[in-house]
Design a protein that fits this description.
Number of domains: 1
CATH class: Alpha Beta
Helix content: 25-40%
Number of helices: 3
CATH topology: Sulfate adenylyltransferase
Strand content: 25-35%
Radius of gyration: 15 Å
CATH architecture: Roll
Largest sheet: 3 strands, antiparallel
Structural class: alpha+beta
Shape: globular
Number of strands: 3
Strand order of the largest sheet: 1-2-3
Length: about 90
């Protein structure tokens, strides 16, 4: 179940696949399935690498293409109808 900032249910998802793999092995398929931007691996990297670098920096850790990424593929089972109208 996915909650909003007020702990109100907004959606239910069903996890289909969880991959744990090095950043360098995230593929075009992963980028496409995420469904953001133009759905390319390049877009995925352009968005995610700066995020990972920033989060790692807070903890004094360097970014590495060998770091493990948890990638979840899920299906949207239910979405709050009020959320759909936005």
């Amino acid at each position: 179940m996915l909650l909003d900032g007020n702990d109100q249910a907004q959606a239910i998802i069903c996890t289909r696949v969880v991959d744990i793999l090095p950043y360098s092995q995230i593929s075009e398929v992963h980028g496409y399935l995420e469904g953001e931007g133009d759905r390319t691996l390049q877009y995925w990297r352009n968005v995610h690498q700066p995020f990972f670098e920033q989060e790692l920096q807070v903890n004094g850790l360097p970014f590495s293409e060998d770091m493990l990424i948890v990638y979840e593929l899920f299906e949207l089972v239910f979405q709050n109808s009020a959320q759909k109208k936005r």
